Amino acid sequence: LLSAVQAARQTAARIECQSRLRQLALALHAYHDARGCFPEGHRSFASAMPLSGWTLSVLPYLEQSALAAQAEADYRAQYF
């Protein structure tokens, strides 16, 4: 019985992981469709928010616009 429960949990975890990866891929493609390129892997010091990467850029496409705005506000409060 214990091994059946463990197998069910592993299957559920794998399905959740696949779902999250699929959502991330869709978000990256939505970013590409909107801007014509994929997000930068790492931003330079010359950009508006240096030291941030593609993960912050893709947040609005993962329905996390509020989190992206909060990160930008926190950055501006800390460095400006």
Top keywords for this entry?
single chain; 80 residues; mainly alpha; 0% strand
Mean pLDDT: 88
The global form is: elongated
| H-E string | HHH
Tell me the quaternary state: single chain
Structural class by helix and strand composition = mainly alpha
Radius of gyration: 17 Å
Number of helices: 3
N-to-C span: 58 Å
The portion of residues forming beta strands comes to under 5%
Question: What does the model show?
Answer:
With 80 residues, the chain is mainly alpha-helical. It has 3 helices and no strands. It has helices spanning 2-35, 54-58, 65-79. The chain is elongated. It starts with a helix and ends with a helix. The mean pLDDT is 88.
What is the compact description of this entry?
The protein is an all-alpha fold and 80 residues long. The chain contains three helices and no strands.
Secondary-structure topology with pairs:
Blueprint: H1 2-35, H2 54-58, H3 65-79
